[in-house]
Each structure stands twice: as structure tokens, then as C-alpha cells.
Amino acid sequence: MRNTVYCGKIYIGQYKQEEAYYIKGKHEPLISEALFYKVQDVLDGNKKGERPGGKVLLNEHFPLRGLLTCPRCGGNLTGSGSKGHSKIYYYYHCTKKCSFRSKSDIVNDLFEKELTKFEFNPPLKDVLKKLLLNNYKSFTGGIDEKRKSVSKQIDVINERVSKARDLYLSDKLDEDDYREIKSSGKLETDKLEEELGCLVSETKTYDIQTRLDHALNAISSISKRYKQGDMETKRMIASSIYPKKT
Asked: What's the domain range around 152?
């Protein structure tokens, strides 16, 4: 099951300065290329592990496996090694029939360079932090005003029910009218108190300063974190940028 002929590929050995490579054969493949490489991973003893972006086969040469789209046909890119005379060459390649492939080290280097575009210098970080804090205060300020308004409505209803009770006790309001005022008041206050509870939970105290500092620091050093991270960290960062593949 190691022979690529099964999936319609023919191995062309290394010749002079040209690297070894595979070409698409004219024969009908017995199995799909995707299934062939899954079998190779099983034979190699690799195991699947749950990671950001879905279940992937972990390999240090392919931190982006399953997260990239084929530029030729739009399919998903997987990764595997091609054994040459002296070493193994690693490639990202399409799981469909278009035969696209690219050296994994080139793709990985390009991705690391792409990450630097998300970074920003300290002065810009301070500006972003100020803008985000202002937006946060504006948002929570609006909630505070709404909370005060709802609380005032509850007080008005309670006062109305209280006056109705006084009138009923002094025989100036019949029992049916009092019960109706009391019942409708309870329905209104229950609804408003539920709304008030939601507003209170939304204005729960957060250490927004620390949270912002942590988030902005992470973004401003994202390429460094990626380079120094393990496979799980790299895939977490990559899958936060690229949409998950299914």
C-alpha cells in the first residue's frame, strides 16, 4: 500500500539537479489520493488529535495542514513527504485531482511573513487601547441609562399598586378593580425585572484594562508567538485567521 500507483500517481526519481516528484498517471486510480495519504499516515504510526480547525494529523512540517485552500481548484490542501534518494521532501498538496503542490517550508515561511502584517508598533497600540476603552465606556454607559429607566418604571408601577391598595382599604375602590390593578402590575414588574436582570449581568464588573492589554500584546507579537510556539499553538493562531475546513 506504499505505491502511489494505487492513487493514480507515478514516482519520477531524482535526476541530476532536479528533485524527485510525482506525476499523474494515465491509468484509472484504485483509490482517491486523499485516502492513499490517510493510509500512509496510519502505516507510519501517526495518530489523529483534536486541534483548532478540526481533526488533523500532527506533523511539525505541516502546521497549516487542513487550513489552506488550493489556489488552483479551491480544494483543501493536505501535506505529505516524498522520499528522494537522500532525504524526504515535504509538500502541501491538493486532495483533489488538480495535482497542485508546493514545498512546505516555502509555504510555512510565507505564512510567518504574513503574520507580521497583523502586528503594530507601541504608539498605535496605545491609540487602539484608548479607542476600545472609549467604545466600551460608551456601550456600558448606554446600558446604565437603560437600567435606570427600567428601575424607574418598576417604581412607578409599584407606586400605582400601592395607591390602589390604599383606596381599596378605604373603601374608595372595589375589590375587582383592585385585583385587576394588582395583577396587571405584577405582570408588568415581572417582565421589567427580568429585563433589569439581563442589563445588570451585562454591566458586570470586568477588568477591561487587563483584558485589553493581554489581547493587544498577543496581537502585537503574534509572529513571534507563532514561531516559538508548539504545534498546538501554531494551529490555534492559524485557525483563528483562516476559516475552518470541513
From this structure: 122-220
30 DSSP assignment: S
Alpha helices in 14-84 (DSSP H): 33-43
- pTM > 0.70: yes or no: no
What does pLDDT average to in each consecutive run of 10 residues of the chain (246 residues)?
65 54 67 67 50 50 89 89 83 88 94 89 85 78 77 92 92 90 92 82 64 84 90 87 60
Cα dist from 221 to 64, 212, 240, 243, whole Å: 19, 14, 15, 21
Paired with 18 in beta bridges are 15
Helical ranges in the chain per DSSP H: 33-43, 104-115, 122-169, 175-202, 208-220, 222-228, 231-241
Residues 156 and 91 in one domain: no
